[in-house]
Amino acid sequence: MGDMGDLYNEMKKEGQKRRANNREKSSDWLVNEEIPFKSKNMGAHLIVEGFECYIDFWPGTGRWISRNGKRGFGVKNLIRHIKKGI
């Protein structure tokens, strides 16, 4: 394969490793903060209990969307959002 193909494959593998690490670390953060959640699709999608409603969280990318419309990125911002209402 050419240089560009090798570079692409290397970047793809790095992204996969980063997303897998994000999935593991994000659930650890939620457990440490004692925030209840349900894991779906082998950890790729978490349903987190928020202060007003459930929040759909995809830890691989960091995207979260509360079921009342609030959106954000990152597990730390998610925790801050939940703790704000408690």
Task: Please provide a written account of the structure.
It contains two helices and five strands, in the order H-E-E-E-E-E-H. The protein is an alpha+beta fold and 86 residues long. It has one domain. A hairpin with a 4-residue loop joins strand 3 and strand 4. The longest helix is centred in the first third of the chain and has 30 residues. The termini are far apart. The mean pLDDT is 91.
Mean residue pLDDT: 91
What is the domain total for the residues? 1
- Taken from the alpha-carbon principal axes, the silhouette is elongated
Order of helices and strands, N to C? HEEEEEH
Number of extended strands? 5
Strand order of the largest sheet: 1-2-3-4-5
Helical stretch count? 2
The radius of gyration computed from the alpha-carbon positions, rounded to a whole number of angstroms, is: 15 Å
Task: Bin the strand percentage.
Answer: 15-25%
